[in-house]
Amino acid sequence: MSEKYDVIIFGAGPAGLTAGIYLARARLRPLILDTGTAGGQTVLSYHVANYPGVEATSGFAISQTMLRQAKGFGADVITQAGITSVDLEGDIKRVEVEDEGSFEAPAVILAIGGVPRRLGVEGEKRLEGQGISYCATCDGDFFTDKPIAVIGGGNSALEEAVSLTKYASHVTVIHEFDHFQAQPWIVEEARNNPKIDFLMNQKVLGFEGDPTLTAVLSEDKATGARNRVEVDGTFVFIGYVPNTARFADFIDLTPRGEIVTDESMVTSRAGVFAAGDARAKRYRQITTAVADGTIAALSATEYVEARRASAASAVA
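Given the sequence above, the corresponding structure tokens read:
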């Protein structure tokens, strides 16, 4: 026998927790499921200073506040959830969770987030948050007047390289090809910036530093020459991986695996909404995730209440 909810939310990051807060305050019964810990990528941010209305604090602290709010308003939350099956077909959506049971609801919000693509080289995991970052907006000002590297050659990498010159004393862009994938205007802007230089056609070999980052090691793919770039920080922009593989058979995704929605966070399947970093969009910040979660919750509330009204009318 499945336990019944009004909305099941996959993901307990800022988008999912915000959706849970709004749904619970609307007197609906939401269940939030997360295969990890609450907070998503936000917990990796050591210092968050750009969340409106909140004094500078850690991403973990913000996440815990959101979690307490969601639970306080009545949302049920299961973290470290071993999800064994998901069925989003039909009017009632169902999910099985190991050791927890079966749950069902007429509506689902996918706030499943994603992760920045990693290089997978020596020292990267150890130095993540200790000089290696994947978010310039989050961490750029920590490297004021310090030399940094940006790894990547697409629009995001070069745009962020230019943006980071506001803080850093010098920026070295390290790219694996001998040409950029970015738009010509941003390539020109980056090349014309006196604080940026370039290491092209490079294979990143690893990172040095203990306990914090001190250098990036790379190799010229054409000549085999080794390079050691001494830096205090490195920002990696080589792509983003949405956590959508489990749901690919149920909803429309972009070629990059991002969930396609309209402005109301409605997906291609009735009763399924999406919010946060897994959704196809340009900017990924805590504030944009919270906005998505709000809209998805309001849309899901409208959907559930319309179903209830229709069922009541049919009985009458």
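The longest helix spans residues 286-315. Try to locate this feature in the token string yourself.
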